[in-house]
Design brief:
Length: 671
């Protein structure tokens, strides 16, 4: 690996890197998807990160709210301009897919550190028109949107409703006399709330609203709506728009609110690829309600990849810092050891490294399945969509939860210094934890997975065939008490038996409530905690199975295969240890087996310890993307921290103005 910013490496990191037992570049290529993609990524990083326009005059933390937004918008616009005008970059990244990947890549994170005001234009607005607009509508909107003549967002969530789309209150009522839709926000809770870029940046939006025509409501449909004048950027009459205020993170996204007061738009502004409203108001329904699954699966798998990349940054920072930081004594009188030598520190960090690979392999498998199923959709075959929808829901929930928890663990592993903004761990955490809520709040997604599990369990009891991911529900869980080897295959079998038992018992409890006369919806709610646990166990089993399968089948050198096998083994045992009650209650494992595995987990921590720094090096995260005083490649932690502290506006004068205004009068009051 070539360091992102060349400098003399500290002795501790030199020593760590000298221990490496595998070929780092091989893992880099594995995670990137091949050597060519690694070269492509590095060229892209160099093209953008070497541009002085992306440097901040001062750290964003020292700017006002408006200054931070303005600075991020400046860099975002320069990014788009550079993309549109630089032929070399266009060759590297292509058209829309390239810009979307650029916005969500490490480069995008490094440039607009706390959110990109133009992100939803490329990630949601353009894809919505492409995916839901007719050919004629695409011709009308795409070129203008792509050139930047219009900038859009995606306005769905409201003050009163988010994940429950059927509850959205914004209305679009068709008037056949004028051939217009009348958009209205009838209540305070119908106010659109949260869309990125909506506050001050965009002048258009794809708005999701309840469609009314000929006196009937036909549910949620998308409409292209102009929000601001294209010349003055003033909000249109009948449109109330603004920013919602500071958030936990992503504060330069200018998340906004939007209200309509009987605002008229042309009939042709309803996106009509799947359903239409004719001139006389006749509603033409879509061929299948499941057609919307494809877009949701795409977005959720993208979140999986984004989540583990955030965890990559955090664990790279924490692991390098743990190799540089010396503290306390292992034995009285001995030199202070690297904190990475403490088993408790290894237990915090090494499972996070394993998690990155687990999510990567599982998400890659779902992505490949998505591409295969998408091809079938074009031929009218929708059979596999429900299964794909369920596993993408589960994996989005699992990866975002694991990543957010893992980033926080990495922050805690850095002690007090991890609390500093200059460590970049607080910002990584606030960006990562947002994924738990957006594009489907995780508890809601877990319950969607559970609904698919219960449905599949009942179908299995009737002898119907099941999808691959739930095929285990057709078999009676087999006990693993007599297994002495406890191989990876045995542990995957234990996961399968544990979740099968959980689903079986929860389905029985659900049926018991129904037999007692409870309506199904109330019975479901009364079992919902157990149903969520079933969904979590099912998704963890799927992830473990994909991890084991990928390590066994990949063409790897012996060193890389060995290190990945250890990480896979650690991941399997770590989550058995955290959830051992599920394995004991189901009979999937015995108390003795779990004790044996926990002892092995401690041995794995010791075995993986020498390669910890080399593993995070293999993630190949540029220093500018890490943006951390604690995590740079050269390990010069303390000088960077001190230098960064000097940049505080409070340190530009010896005596602060506030001393004369407030503190001195207090201190001298009794003289």
């Amino acid at each position: 690996m070539v360091p992102s910013e060349k400098g003399e490496c500290v002795a501790d990191l030199k020593k760590e890197r000298a221990k490496c037992s595998f070929i780092k570049e091989e893992i880099t290529h594995l995670l990137d998807g091949g050597k060519e993609k690694t070269l492509y990524r590095r060229k892209l990083e160099n093209a953008f990160l070497s541009d002085p326009e992306y440097l901040d005059p001062i750290r964003p933390e020292y700017m006002s709210h408006e200054e931070r937004y303005t600075n991020a918008l400046r860099k975002a616009c320069h990014m788009v301009g550079k993309f549109n005008n630089d032929e070399e970059i266009q060759q590297l990244v292509g058209q829309m897919e390239g810009m979307r990947s650029l916005m969500g890549s490490g480069v995008g994170v490094a440039i607009t550190k706390d959110g990109n005001p133009l992100a939803l234009h490329f990630i949601m607005f353009l894809p919505a028109i492409m995916g839901q607009g007719t050919v004629e509508q695409q011709a009308q909107w795409m070129s203008r949107a792509w050139s930047g003549e219009i900038i859009g967002t995606y306005a769905q969530t409201e003050l009163g409703h988010g994940t429950f789309l059927r509850g959205l209150e914004t209305t679009a009522t068709y008037d056949p006399d004028t051939q217009e839709f009348i958009l209205n926000s009838p209540t305070i809770t119908s106010t659109k709330w949260w869309p990125g870029g909506l506050g001050k940046t965009v002048n258009y939006a794809v708005v999701m609203a309840q469609l009314y025509t000929q006196g009937q409501c036909h549910g949620i449909h998308p409409f292209v709506v102009q929000l601001r004048d294209e010349e003055t950027h003033q909000s249109m009459p009948g449109v109330t728009i603004g920013e919602i205020g500071p958030r936990l993170g992503m504060n330069t996204n200018d998340n906004g609110f939007l209200r309509f007061d009987h605002y008229h738009i042309p009939r042709t502004h309803m996106l009509m690829k799947h359903s239409q409203v004719l001139e006389d108001g006749t509603y033409v329904k879509p061929a299948s309600n499941k057609l919307a699954y494809g877009t949701m699966v795409f977005v959720r798998v993208a979140i999986c990849f984004s989540s583990y990349r955030q965890l990559q940054r955090a664990v790279t920072i924490a692991t390098r810092y743990s190799a540089v930081r010396h503290q306390s004594e292992l034995a009285p009188g001995e030199p202070e050891p690297q904190i990475l030598d403490y088993q408790t520190q290894q237990y915090k960090l090494l499972p996070q490294i394993a998690t990155i690979f687990a999510i990567h392999f599982a998400a890659k498998d779902v992505w490949n399945t998505f591409n295969e199923v998408t091809g079938n959709i074009q031929d009218g075959n929708l059979v596999r969509l429900p299964e794909l929808h369920a596993i993408s829901c589960g994996l989005k929930a699992l990866s975002s939860t694991d990543a957010a928890s893992g980033v926080e663990t990495c922050r805690l592993a850095c002690g007090g210094h991890g609390y500093l903004a200059s460590s970049n761990l607080p910002r990584i955490y606030t960006s990562t934890t947002a994924a738990i809520t957006y594009e489907g709040e995780n508890t809601v997604l877990w319950l969607q997975v559970a609904r698919y599990l219960i449905k599949s369990y009942r179908e299995a009891s009737q002898g119907q065939p099941l999808g691959h991911s739930v095929s285990y529900l057709t078999m009676q869980a087999a006990s693993t008490h007599n297994i002495s080897v406890l191989s990876n295959a045995d542990l995957v079998e234990a996961y399968k038996n544990a979740v099968s038992s959980m689903v079986s018992k929860t389905a029985a409890r659900l049926q018991q409530h129904c037999d007692m006369g409870h309506p199904f919806e109330h019975a479901w709610n009364n079992c919902s905690v157990l149903l969520v646990r079933c969904a979590q166990a099912h998704t963890r089993y799927f992830t473990c199975e994909r991890f084991v399968d990928a390590v066994e089948k990949a063409e790897l050198s012996e060193g890389v295969r060995s290190i990945l096998h250890r990480l896979c083994r650690l991941y399997l045992i770590y989550h058995i240890s955290l959830n051992h009650g599920d394995f004991l209650r189901s009979g999937a494992l015995t108390d003795f087996s779990i004790s044996t595995l926990e002892e092995e987990m401690c041995n794995l921590l010791t075995a993986l310890r020498p390669d910890a720094v080399s593993l995070v090096d293999s993630f190949d995260v540029h220093d500018r993307i890490l943006d951390s005083t604690l995590g740079c490649w050269d390990g010069n932690v303390y000088q960077r921290m001190f230098d960064e502290a000097q940049k505080s506006p409070l340190n530009q004068t010896d005596v602060a103005e506030a001393y004369f205004k407030y503190l001195r009068p207090l201190m001298k009051a009794n003289l």
